[in-house]
């Protein structure tokens, strides 16, 4: 039996001035075709690093990461996430036992990260666990304690809440180190991460009695606001806001649906307002089917055209059939036999043809032309910065980095990283249940 794993992740809302760094960890059981552990790092909604237990290697997804951080960065993240693999396997077994479940398909997920508003300076952080698609554990940053909605996680909350050093280490990481690294990532990859692409906005309606859809696509960054106005006043009744969705090119799309009666649409003036990065787009009178009579006329025209085409097709078939059925008597009977033989020879002849196609897989990476940062923390045993801060290790990660040395191009950037990593001794994100 084949399984399809659907990973549902709730992304925090991000406006035009807010930047985020997120880590997503997923452990599974009972899915032989799916890695037992998967880790993904995202910055402003874009994948910047990936690891799974099958390849057992972390891989940066941007060229600017290789240019700035060097191959040592991937090696450090590999070492950290290899340890996470073992601990997540243990934790999912513990969860299965606590819920008194049998072996089968189960998932354990963790999401953590931080947010920074580059205009107001406001900071935010989040960290939580989910088991089989339901909330399991959440770190309350206001109360500085772990909370849970299920009885099966009470043992873990008591264990972690009694360890104040464990919680304070998390707090220090999210309030300082996570934010500082988020800011550095934005600086390193500013050519791709700090770009601004305005949305393309369309107002769509299938029929005059159908809901009206305001669709914005192709914009970056992801923060966008879509609203409606009725006769120049804000209108939020009967409005359904769709989810933010990614496009293949790294941009985003979003839609808002207005459910309005045809007579109300005809007698009022509705407008879709899209706001992105300080730009305000107001769409008016761009919908073709907002006039019922016009729509009916279009429908009648289409029906008449279809009837006319059908009449022409029938007439053509009748003429063709009559011509095909008319066979004049040949002057010489032998001519008829020869013609019949020639026709059979033509029908029986075969033409062989074959098609072949191939495709090349091309990997595209964003590039940034600034200098390398290849130094890492001299003493970093913290896993609270998992998939965020490099960690020195004498162990062989098992990944082929393709390079035996990392070039040093910027002493200023090296000192910056050292100052951030100088005191990082927590092991918060690898805690056992």
From TrEMBL:
It comes from Danio rerio (Zebrafish). The chain crosses the membrane at residues 296-321. Keywords: Glycoprotein, Membrane, Signal, Transmembrane, Transmembrane helix. InterPro entries: Ig-like_dom, Ig-like_dom_sf, Ig-like_fold, Ig_C1-set, MHC_class-I_related, MHC_I-like_Ag-recog, MHC_I-like_Ag-recog_sf, MHC_I/II-like_Ag-recog. Residues 329-433 are annotated as: Disordered. It comes from the Eukaryota. This is Major histocompatibility complex class I UKA isoform 1 precursor. Residues 346-361, 368-384, 412-433 have a biased composition (Low complexity). Residues 1-16 form the signal peptide. Belongs to the MHC class I family. Residues 212-283 form the Ig-like domain. CDD domains: IgC1_MHC_I_alpha3. Pfam families: C1-set, MHC_I.
């Amino acid at each position: 039996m084949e399984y399809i794993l659907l990973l549902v992740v709730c992304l925090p809302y991000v406006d035009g001035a807010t930047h985020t760094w997120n880590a997503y960890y997923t452990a599974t059981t009972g899915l032989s075709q799916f890695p037992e552990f998967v880790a993904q790092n995202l910055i402003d909604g874009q994948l910047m690093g990936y690891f799974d237990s099958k390849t057992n290697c972390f891989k940066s997804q941007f060229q600017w990461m290789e240019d700035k951080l060097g191959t040592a960065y991937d090696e450090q993240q590999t070492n950290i996430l290899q340890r996470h693999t073992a601990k997540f396997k243990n934790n999912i077994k513990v969860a299965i036992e606590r819920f008194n479940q049998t072996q089968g398909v189960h998932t354990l997920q963790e999401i953590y990260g931080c947010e920074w508003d580059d205009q107001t300076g406001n900071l935010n952080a989040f960290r939580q666990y989910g088991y089989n698609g339901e909330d399991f554990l959440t770190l309350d940053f206001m109360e500085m304690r772990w909370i849970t909605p299920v009885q099966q996680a009470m043992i873990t909350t008591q264990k972690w809440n009694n360890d104040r050093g464990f919680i304070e280490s998390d707090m220090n990481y999210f309030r300082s180190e996570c934010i500082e690294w988020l800011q550095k990532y934005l600086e390193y990859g500013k050519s791709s991460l700090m770009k601004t692409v305005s949305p393309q906005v369309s107002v769509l309606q299938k029929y005059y009695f159908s809901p009206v859809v305001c669709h914005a696509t192709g914009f970056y960054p992801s923060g966008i606001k879509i609203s409606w106005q009725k006769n120049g006043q804000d209108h939020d009744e009967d409005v359904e806001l769709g989810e933010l969705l990614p496009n293949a090119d790294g941009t985003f799309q979003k839609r808002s649906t207005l459910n309005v009666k045809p007579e109300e649409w005809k007698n009022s003036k509705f407008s879709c307002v899209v706001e992105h990065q300080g730009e305000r787009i107001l769409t008016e009178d761009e919908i073709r089917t907002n006039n019922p009579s016009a729509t009916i006329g279009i429908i009648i025209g289409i029906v008449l055209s279809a009837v006319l085409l059908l009449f022409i097709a029938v007439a053509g078939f009748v003429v063709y059939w009559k011509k095909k059925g008319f066979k004049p008597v040949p002057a010489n009977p032998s001519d008829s036999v020869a013609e019949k033989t020639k026709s059979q020879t033509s029908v029986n002849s075969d033409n062989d043809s074959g098609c072949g196609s191939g495709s090349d897989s091309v990997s595209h990476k964003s590039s940034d032309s600034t200098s390398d940062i290849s130094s890492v923390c001299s003493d970093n045993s913290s896993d609270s910065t998992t998939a965020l801060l490099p960690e020195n290790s004498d162990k062989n990660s098992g990944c082929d980095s393709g390079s035996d040395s990392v070039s040093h191009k910027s002493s200023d950037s090296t000192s910056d990283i050292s100052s951030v990593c100088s005191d990082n001794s927590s092991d918060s994100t690898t805690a056992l249940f």
